[in-house]
Specification:
The protein is mainly alpha-helical. Among the domains are: about 140 residues, no CATH class; about 110 residues, no CATH class. Helices cover about 60% and strands about 5% of the residues. The chain contains 21 helices and six strands. It has a four-stranded mixed sheet with strand order 3-4-6-5, with helices on one face. A two-stranded parallel sheet has the order 1-2.
Length: about 500
């Protein structure tokens, strides 16, 4: 027993070291636009509190809902104390924490450290583009903990897991309000399974009789039973009240619904459907799972069928949802693989087949070398990509223009960086802020993203635009070059700025 415990601890240390190196490999030094506005919003909260007012757009009268106010505060505090380097390290730490959480919870559910490590590592490599300083990274960790707590509550009925779910729900409501309702979606596979189990038990004799008469074989789906169904239902109901434990009143219940009603989703890349060329791994995983289930002639638990089906559907519907699939499908996929390996390998285990000290050393060596070269290669890179964000142009605006009193039309993709530099913006990546669902009568997103190429003069007049900042690749550039009403006052390799002639 002592030998086994020592071996398990050694493997856990190996897994921890591997996940640290994996996090270093996956987290890019370059920050995305959401991080820039999070810093400024956090700073504003410390100045004025959560006043539900918009402070960064030059368009007056807008209200802002602060959908991830607590995350913004943490981002600002880290940036204020340690700069972009601190945010980079914090992102690596949160990524490592996500992998470690997935590993520890999965290994407990399937009682197989080795399978959990392989699965988390494989899925982790597919999450590269999602590991950045955004509120999602915190909610991913909390979702894993909630799903694990539901699993353990189902198995043990211990009240502490209800408490874990409650605390995690409160944190999500404040860290990332947009994802709050998804907490209750995680309960659905379990509640649906219990309901079907209840119906099945009630009509079991009739079902058996029908199967005998029609010579039907038993189903490939296993409908689980639990004596703790009531506790899960009570926990579900109690957690509804966590949405009120925020400074934003009813926002956790309304935010996601409002965003779905808006026009921004159809015009932002990450909200568009997933295609096979963008996420081939999603289609590969789906094909492999179907192949395993058919080949092994084994049963799948109904709750896993519901959960995997829902996660696959979400991932196909929007690119950004792939991360939810990769992270939250881990328990169900692990159960399927565990059953498959146990049935096919007989007395052999993944540990015996794959892992030994030589392979473990090789993995650490490969991860270590890759992480070293990645850090060494990126040490001279900037935290802000100058091809995507107008760094030098912002310097020009701050040093040469009365930027607090001019009205700049800017593109959606880099508005957050202008905001970060203290320059009042027309629009930024807080897309929902600029739609009618969140600000009655507001059509900034529609005007600035959808209609600008057809009616740019009308739109510029509507908002009294005095200056225009755009990418050089924007087709509006060639139009403004021919418009005598505007003159170019700045240009570099990637951006141009125009001033309206008075």
């Amino acid at each position: 027993m002592m030998i086994i415990m020592k071996k398990n601890k050694l493997f856990d240390l190996f897994a921890i070291a591997s996940f640290i190196l994996l996090a270093i490999m996956l987290v890019v030094k370059e920050f995305q636009n959401d991080t820039f506005y999070a810093i400024k919003v956090g700073e504003q909260i410390f100045k004025t509190g959560i006043d539900m007012q918009e402070h960064f757009s030059f368009v007056s009268g807008l209200t802002y809902t602060y959908p991830h106010w607590l995350f913004d505060c943490f981002v600002y505090l880290i940036y204020h104390s340690f700069g972009f380097f601190g945010l980079y390290v914090a992102t690596i730490f949160l990524t490592f924490l996500l992998f470690l959480t997935m590993y520890k919870t999965t290994s407990k559910i399937v009682s197989d450290r080795y399978l959990a490590f392989i699965l988390v590592t494989v899925l982790g490599f597919t999450l590269k583009n999602f590991m950045t300083a955004r509120a999602q990274l915190v909610s991913y960790i909390l979702f894993v903990l909630i799903l694990y707590s539901i699993e353990m509550l189902e198995q043990t009925g211990k009240t502490k897991y209800s408490v874990y779910i409650f605390v995690s729900s409160v944190l999500i409501a404040n860290f990332h309000t947009a994802t709050y309702l998804f907490i209750f979606v995680l309960f659905m596979p379990y509640l649906a399974s219990y309901f079907i189990s209840f119906i099945k038990n009630k009509y079991q004799n009739k079902i058996n009789k029908y199967q005998e008469q029609n010579k039907l074989s038993s189903t490939r789906i296993e409908i689980g039973k639990t004596k703790f169904t009531k506790k899960i239902i009570v926990t579900f109901i109690i957690n509804i009240f966590t949405g009120f434990l925020t400074p934003q009143k009813m926002l956790p219940f309304t935010y996601y619904i409002k965003t779905k009603m808006g026009i921004s989703l159809a015009n932002i890349s990450e909200h568009l459907p997933t295609t096979i060329d963008k996420r081939p791994e999603l289609f590969i995983i789906l094909g492999l799972l179907i192949f395993i289930l058919l080949l092994a002639n084994m049963k799948i638990q109904l709750k896993d069928l519901f959960l995997l089906g829902g996660l696959f559907l979400l991932a196909f519907m929007a690119k950004r949802n792939y991360a939810l699939f990769a992270i939250l499908s881990v328990f169900s996929i692990a159960r399927i693989l565990k059953l498959f390996t146990d049935n096919r390998l007989n007395n052999l285990t993944i540990e015996k087949v794959i892992f030994n000290k030589y392979i473990a050393t090789l993995i650490l060596l490969m991860f270590g070398i890759t992480a070293f070269f990645k850090v060494n290669y990126g040490k001279n890179k900037d935290y802000v990509n100058k091809t995507k964000y107008p760094v030098e142009l912002s310097d020009y605006i701050v040093n040469n223009l009365d930027y607090k009193n001019i009205r700049i039309y800017n593109e959606y993709n880099f508005g957050s960086y202008l905001l970060f530099r203290g320059i009042p913006v027309f629009i930024d990546s807080r897309a929902d802020l600029y739609t009618e669902e969140f600000n009655k009568g507001c059509t900034i997103f529609k005007d600035g993203v959808i209609s600008i190429f057809k009616n740019y003069q009308q739109i510029f007049d509507k908002y009294n635009i005095t200056h225009v900042v755009i990418y050089n690749s924007n087709k509006l550039k060639s139009i403004l070059e021919r418009d005598a009403s505007y003159q170019k006052i700045y240009s570099d390799d990637y951006f141009s700025m125009y001033s309206k002639n008075i």
